[in-house]
Design brief:
two-stranded antiparallel sheet; 5 strands; single chain; 113 residues; 39% helix; three-stranded antiparallel sheet; alpha+beta
Length: 113
């Protein structure tokens, strides 16, 4: 059975949907003439590379898209939402995403126009 490529992920009409790796794979297959299996492998390798880079405590910069930055958060006192009592939140590393100026401009134009 031949799978039909899905091109709707770039459509402006589908603002309510979440883009999945499978949708990216199908779109890549349709646009680049890869098989869906080849596209899934490419997408999988792409995300694994990002995860491995972040795991090795390096930031990831995708030009024209944005940066994934590792940030150190110190130990702090928070509140238990259930009881309202103070609770100690341990120190940890978190990943922050910062959109590129190109993306920010595009979002601003879309939201304001």
């Amino acid at each position: 059975m031949i799978e039909k490529p899905m091109y709707f992920i770039l459509s402006h009409e589908r603002s309510d949907c979440t883009i999945t790796k499978d949708m990216i794979s199908h779109n890549l297959a349709g646009k680049m003439k890869f098989t869906v299996a080849e596209s899934r492998l490419i997408v999988s390798c792409f995300f694994k590379l990002i995860i491995q880079t972040l795991a090795s405590e390096e930031n990831v910069n995708l030009s024209g898209f944005g940066k994934f930055i590792i940030r150190e958060k110190s130990e702090r006192v928070g509140r238990n939402p259930k009881s309202g009592l103070p609770a100690l939140i341990s120190a940890r590393r978190v990943v922050i995403f910062k959109a590129s100026q190109k993306i920010k401009k595009r979002l601003f134009v879309r939201l304001s126009g």
